[in-house]
Design brief:
- The protein is mainly beta.
- The chain has a single domain, classed as Protein Transport Mog1p, Chain A.
- Helices cover 10% and strands 39% of the residues.
- A 10-stranded antiparallel sheet has the order 4-5-6-7-8-3-2-1-9-10.
- The radius of gyration is 21 Å and the shape is globular.
- The termini are far apart.
Protein backbone atom coordinates (compact mmCIF):
# COMPACT_ATOMS: atom_id res chain seq x y z
CA UNK A 1 0.00 0.00 0.00
CA UNK A 2 1.04 3.62 -0.38
CA UNK A 3 2.73 4.94 2.80
CA UNK A 4 1.28 7.88 4.68
CA UNK A 5 2.70 11.35 4.17
CA UNK A 6 5.49 12.22 6.62
CA UNK A 7 3.47 15.34 7.42
CA UNK A 8 0.86 13.06 8.95
CA UNK A 9 3.28 10.62 10.59
CA UNK A 10 5.27 13.27 12.43
CA UNK A 11 2.15 14.38 14.29
CA UNK A 12 2.40 11.16 16.32
CA UNK A 13 5.75 12.21 17.80
CA UNK A 14 5.80 14.68 20.70
CA UNK A 15 6.67 18.24 19.66
CA UNK A 16 7.40 19.29 23.23
CA UNK A 17 8.68 17.27 26.18
CA UNK A 18 9.15 19.02 29.50
CA UNK A 19 12.81 19.31 30.40
CA UNK A 20 13.95 18.38 26.88
CA UNK A 21 14.92 20.50 23.87
CA UNK A 22 13.80 19.46 20.37
CA UNK A 23 16.93 19.56 18.20
CA UNK A 24 15.78 17.79 15.02
CA UNK A 25 12.39 17.26 13.37
CA UNK A 26 12.49 15.80 9.86
CA UNK A 27 10.61 13.44 7.60
CA UNK A 28 10.70 12.10 4.07
CA UNK A 29 9.10 9.75 1.59
CA UNK A 30 11.67 7.68 -0.26
CA UNK A 31 12.09 4.42 -2.10
CA UNK A 32 14.08 1.35 -1.11
CA UNK A 33 12.63 -2.11 -1.55
CA UNK A 34 9.31 -0.25 -1.66
CA UNK A 35 7.96 3.24 -1.09
CA UNK A 36 8.34 4.21 2.55
CA UNK A 37 7.88 7.24 4.77
CA UNK A 38 10.05 7.94 7.79
CA UNK A 39 9.94 10.73 10.37
CA UNK A 40 12.46 11.49 13.11
CA UNK A 41 12.65 13.78 16.10
CA UNK A 42 15.64 14.17 18.42
CA UNK A 43 15.70 15.59 21.93
CA UNK A 44 18.47 16.71 24.30
CA UNK A 45 17.97 16.90 28.05
CA UNK A 46 18.10 20.43 29.43
CA UNK A 47 20.35 20.52 32.51
CA UNK A 48 18.61 21.71 35.68
CA UNK A 49 21.89 23.27 36.81
CA UNK A 50 25.11 24.15 34.97
CA UNK A 51 27.09 21.01 34.16
CA UNK A 52 30.79 20.45 33.44
CA UNK A 53 31.70 20.54 29.72
CA UNK A 54 32.87 16.94 29.96
CA UNK A 55 29.46 15.67 31.10
CA UNK A 56 27.38 14.37 28.20
CA UNK A 57 23.77 15.48 27.93
CA UNK A 58 21.23 12.65 27.61
CA UNK A 59 19.84 12.32 24.06
CA UNK A 60 16.81 10.55 22.66
CA UNK A 61 15.86 9.87 19.04
CA UNK A 62 12.34 8.79 18.05
CA UNK A 63 11.38 7.66 14.57
CA UNK A 64 8.42 6.12 12.77
CA UNK A 65 8.69 4.10 9.56
CA UNK A 66 5.62 3.39 7.46
CA UNK A 67 6.53 0.28 5.49
CA UNK A 68 3.26 0.08 3.55
CA UNK A 69 3.24 -3.57 4.68
CA UNK A 70 5.68 -4.36 1.88
CA UNK A 71 7.80 -7.50 1.91
CA UNK A 72 11.57 -7.14 2.04
CA UNK A 73 11.40 -4.14 4.39
CA UNK A 74 12.26 -3.88 8.09
CA UNK A 75 9.04 -5.79 8.76
CA UNK A 76 11.11 -8.92 8.16
CA UNK A 77 12.80 -8.30 11.52
CA UNK A 78 9.52 -9.26 13.19
CA UNK A 79 8.82 -12.40 11.14
CA UNK A 80 7.97 -15.35 13.43
CA UNK A 81 8.39 -13.06 16.45
CA UNK A 82 8.74 -14.80 19.82
CA UNK A 83 10.14 -13.59 23.17
CA UNK A 84 13.82 -14.54 23.50
CA UNK A 85 17.22 -13.29 24.60
CA UNK A 86 20.32 -13.63 22.42
CA UNK A 87 23.13 -15.84 23.67
CA UNK A 88 25.43 -12.88 24.22
CA UNK A 89 22.68 -10.88 25.87
CA UNK A 90 22.86 -7.99 23.42
CA UNK A 91 19.41 -8.53 21.91
CA UNK A 92 16.10 -9.14 23.59
CA UNK A 93 12.80 -9.95 21.92
CA UNK A 94 9.83 -9.25 24.15
CA UNK A 95 6.48 -7.52 24.41
CA UNK A 96 6.59 -4.03 25.88
CA UNK A 97 3.27 -2.27 26.49
CA UNK A 98 1.68 -5.00 24.40
CA UNK A 99 3.88 -4.35 21.35
CA UNK A 100 6.41 -6.78 19.84
CA UNK A 101 9.78 -5.19 20.52
CA UNK A 102 13.44 -5.81 19.73
CA UNK A 103 15.70 -4.19 22.32
CA UNK A 104 19.41 -3.84 21.69
CA UNK A 105 21.96 -2.98 24.38
CA UNK A 106 24.89 -1.23 22.71
CA UNK A 107 26.72 -0.46 25.96
CA UNK A 108 25.91 0.57 29.52
CA UNK A 109 24.52 3.94 28.43
CA UNK A 110 23.17 3.33 24.91
CA UNK A 111 20.05 1.39 24.00
CA UNK A 112 17.90 0.99 20.91
CA UNK A 113 14.45 -0.50 20.55
CA UNK A 114 12.12 -1.20 17.65
CA UNK A 115 8.39 -1.79 18.02
CA UNK A 116 5.87 -3.14 15.55
CA UNK A 117 2.47 -1.41 15.39
CA UNK A 118 -0.45 -2.84 13.39
CA UNK A 119 1.85 -4.97 11.19
CA UNK A 120 2.77 -1.79 9.29
CA UNK A 121 4.55 0.84 11.37
CA UNK A 122 7.95 0.39 12.99
CA UNK A 123 8.76 2.71 15.86
CA UNK A 124 12.37 3.21 16.88
CA UNK A 125 13.66 4.67 20.12
CA UNK A 126 17.35 5.37 20.63
CA UNK A 127 18.64 6.34 24.07
CA UNK A 128 22.09 7.80 24.65
CA UNK A 129 23.38 8.46 28.16
CA UNK A 130 19.86 7.59 29.30
CA UNK A 131 18.86 4.49 31.35
CA UNK A 132 17.01 1.70 29.55
CA UNK A 133 14.04 2.01 31.92
CA UNK A 134 13.19 5.20 30.03
CA UNK A 135 12.22 3.19 26.93
CA UNK A 136 8.69 2.66 28.20
CA UNK A 137 8.35 6.31 29.21
CA UNK A 138 9.28 7.51 25.72
CA UNK A 139 7.09 4.88 24.08
CA UNK A 140 4.13 6.25 26.01
CA UNK A 141 4.88 9.73 24.63
CA UNK A 142 4.23 8.52 21.07
CA UNK A 143 0.61 8.86 19.98
CA UNK A 144 -0.07 5.28 18.91
CA UNK A 145 -3.78 5.92 18.46
CA UNK A 146 -3.04 8.63 15.92
CA UNK A 147 -1.02 6.07 13.96
CA UNK A 148 -3.75 3.47 14.17
CA UNK A 149 -6.26 5.95 12.76
CA UNK A 150 -4.26 6.31 9.55
CA UNK A 151 -6.33 4.35 7.01
CA UNK A 152 -4.88 1.51 4.99
CA UNK A 153 -4.90 1.91 1.23
CA UNK A 154 -5.46 -0.79 -1.33
CA UNK A 155 -2.54 -2.95 -2.37
CA UNK A 156 -0.81 -1.41 -5.39
CA UNK A 157 2.06 -2.18 -7.71
CA UNK A 158 5.08 0.10 -7.65
CA UNK A 159 3.93 3.26 -9.49
CA UNK A 160 5.91 4.80 -12.33
CA UNK A 161 6.42 7.90 -10.18
CA UNK A 162 5.78 9.05 -6.63
CA UNK A 163 5.63 12.32 -4.71
CA UNK A 164 8.90 12.72 -2.83
CA UNK A 165 8.29 14.76 0.31
CA UNK A 166 11.07 16.09 2.53
CA UNK A 167 10.16 18.13 5.60
CA UNK A 168 12.41 19.90 8.08
CA UNK A 169 10.35 21.63 10.74
CA UNK A 170 13.32 23.41 12.31
CA UNK A 171 14.57 24.64 8.92
CA UNK A 172 11.41 25.01 6.79
CA UNK A 173 13.40 26.45 3.89
CA UNK A 174 14.91 23.00 3.31
CA UNK A 175 11.51 21.32 2.93
CA UNK A 176 10.55 20.32 -0.59
CA UNK A 177 8.23 18.18 -2.68
CA UNK A 178 8.79 16.79 -6.17
CA UNK A 179 7.64 13.98 -8.44
CA UNK A 180 10.28 11.27 -8.96
CA UNK A 181 10.17 8.39 -11.44
CA UNK A 182 10.71 4.84 -10.25
CA UNK A 183 11.37 3.08 -13.59
CA UNK A 184 8.82 0.54 -12.45
CA UNK A 185 8.05 -0.78 -15.93
CA UNK A 186 10.71 -2.60 -17.88
CA UNK A 187 10.81 -2.23 -21.65
CA UNK A 188 9.90 -5.14 -23.90
CA UNK A 189 13.49 -5.24 -25.14
CA UNK A 190 14.75 -5.66 -21.56
CA UNK A 191 12.23 -8.42 -20.92
CA UNK A 192 13.08 -10.26 -24.17
CA UNK A 193 16.56 -9.38 -25.48
CA UNK A 194 16.13 -11.76 -28.45
CA UNK A 195 12.86 -10.25 -29.61
CA UNK A 196 14.53 -8.33 -32.49
CA UNK A 197 16.85 -11.14 -33.63
CA UNK A 198 16.35 -12.15 -37.26
CA UNK A 199 15.42 -15.73 -38.04
CA UNK A 200 16.43 -17.55 -41.18
Amino acid sequence: MYPASPKKLIEALPAKVEGWELTLSRGKTDIGMWLESRVTREYVRKPATPTPPTEKAPRVRLSILDTGEAEGTDLDLFADFAPAVSTGGGYEYRFLSGLPSIITTLNQSEFEAQFLVDKRFILSISLKDTPSKELKTWLERIDLERLRRIPDTRKISLPESYQSIHIDELAPGKSQEMAIGTAAEATEEAEDPDADCETE
